[in-house]
């Protein structure tokens, strides 16, 4: 009876993982031939590399754009689990007349497959103060929005075991790699690339840093867990409305093995 139950549970996990991964991939011809970390956008002629997106906005018009992020790791297969972080907003001069510096958090429902996975109740969208968001993700400081920020994050089955998306543990502290899952949610490219050396002390003592963020507005963060199929393929679709001054940044918490992969970014053409 126990064996039958185990086999049934395993079969369900495999089936659910495949369905989740492939639900979006059939809409992308040639997805399996794309490199790991490919970032595409949809045109009337089909999917194109995001590097060609700037030409679409030559007329300066606001548009709703469909994107696809592809995880394609044939060496991992079903062990490839991850979380894609999509950060967007308005930068520079375009942010001056766009209201308060708040951050909108979005996270859809995701079926639990692995026993270790935890998806706290979170009614999207929720809004937190920009300074609190930055303090929490850039330095690990305590904020008045901690309850909301913690419920936004999830626990997922990574290659190295179960991890929280807001885990502040440095990838290799004594080797000088202070990057962490939490730092990948930062809107500061320097924090994303290098991590925050003070996170450890901030977590213990709860001290607060001097706020020094660049002018931004309409900031939005979407968290999208994914699970690859038996070939290591997963496709993550998302949509954004882009206007003059928009930027989009994408981070895959599980892309790269010994060293994290670089952040993907797109900026409205000058």
From TrEMBL:
Signal sequence annotation = 1-23
Task: Provide the alphabetized UniProt keywords.
Answer: Signal
User: What's the protein name?
Assistant: DUF3108 domain-containing protein
Q: Which organism is it from?
A: Mesorhizobium loti R88b
């Amino acid at each position: 009876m126990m064996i039958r139950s185990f086999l049934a549970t395993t079969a369900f996990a495999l089936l659910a993982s495949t369905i989740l991964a492939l639900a979006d991939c059939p809409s992308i011809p040639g997805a399996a031939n794309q490199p790991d970390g490919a970032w595409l956008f949809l045109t009337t002629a089909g999917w194109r590399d995001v590097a060609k997106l700037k030409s679409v906005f030559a007329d300066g018009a606001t548009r709703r754009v469909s994107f696809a992020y592809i995880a394609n790791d044939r060496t991992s297969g079903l062990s490839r689990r991850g979380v894609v972080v999509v950060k967007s907003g308005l930068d520079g001069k375009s942010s001056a007349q766009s209201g308060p510096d708040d951050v909108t958090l979005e996270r859809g429902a995701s079926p639990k497959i692995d026993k270790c996975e935890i998806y706290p109740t979170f009614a999207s969208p929720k809004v937190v103060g920009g300074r609190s968001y930055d303090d929490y993700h850039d330095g690990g400081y305590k904020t008045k929005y901690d309850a909301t920020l913690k419920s936004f994050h999830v626990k997922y089955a990574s290659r190295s075991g179960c991890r929280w998306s807001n885990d502040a543990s440095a990838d290799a502290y004594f080797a000088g790699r202070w990057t962490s899952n939490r730092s990948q949610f930062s809107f500061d490219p320097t924090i994303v690339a290098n991590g925050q050396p003070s996170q450890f002390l901030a977590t213990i003592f709860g001290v607060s840093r001097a706020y020094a963020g660049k002018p931004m507005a309409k900031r939005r963060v979407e968290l999208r867990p994914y699970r690859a199929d038996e070939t290591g393929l997963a496709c993550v679709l998302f949509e954004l409305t882009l206007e003059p001054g928009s930027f989009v940044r994408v981070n895959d918490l599980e892309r790269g093995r010994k060293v994290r992969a670089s952040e993907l970014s797109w900026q409205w053409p000058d």
